[in-house]
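Exercise 7b. Backbone tokens:
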């Protein structure tokens, strides 16, 4: 489990394709603290460390992850938001984040609000997806590229989030512009409620 509080950004230094998988090699400030089999969220997607060599580590993204996320779009040199899994005695400073990306969204607007930034994202929506809990609610939680954020002004297929200067400077939000594709994970509580409502309606 994660909290959506980004520890750092990692830099992609190598990409290797092997059948349906992609091996991403990255470097980040805490590489020397990592161990094999450790879970790290990359742009919100939980991946397992499979190799460590000096100041570099490698994780593997399988086809399901690549189809649901923006990891397959990464290029050498790109920044990735990273967070190690939350310790059992840690503070939940963000919200409950599973590290399971639901789908991608596209940035359609960025507004400079004299220090903070307001981003608008559009995502694919359908009745079936809503039944699975894939939607946003005003003042609810959403994870964008692994960052725990509060939803503003949601519509059927868009939502807005506001980014303070610290988050803008210390995550890859400073690289997001109109047209950028981001990972989103909807609130797990909303997904359970949506599923329960569907089961009760069908019973």
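Sequence design result:
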């Amino acid at each position: 489990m994660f909290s959506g509080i980004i520890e750092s950004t990692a830099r992609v230094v190598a990409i290797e394709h092997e059948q349906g998988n992609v091996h991403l090699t990255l470097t980040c400030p805490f590489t020397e603290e990592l161990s094999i089999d450790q879970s790290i969220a990359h742009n919100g997607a939980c991946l397992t460390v499979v190799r460590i060599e000096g100041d570099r580590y490698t994780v593997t993204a399988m086809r399901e992850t690549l189809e649901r996320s923006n990891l397959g779009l990464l290029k050498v040199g790109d920044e990735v938001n990273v967070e190690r899994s939350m310790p059992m005695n840690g503070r939940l400073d963000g919200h409950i984040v599973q590290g399971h990306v639901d789908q991608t969204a596209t940035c359609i607007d960025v507004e400079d609000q004299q220090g903070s930034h307001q981003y608008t994202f559009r995502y694919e929506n359908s009745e079936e997806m809503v039944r699975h809990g894939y939607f946003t609610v005003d003042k609810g939680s959403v994870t964008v590229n692994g960052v725990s954020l509060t939803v503003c002004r949601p519509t059927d297929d868009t939502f807005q989030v506001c980014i303070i200067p610290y988050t803008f400077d210390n995550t890859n939000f400073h690289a997001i512009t109109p047209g950028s594709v981001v990972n989103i994970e909807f609130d797990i509580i909303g997904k359970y409620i949506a599923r329960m409502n569907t089961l009760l309606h069908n019973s």
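Instructor comment: The chain has a mean pLDDT of 93. Residues 1 and 89 are 12 Å apart (CA to CA).
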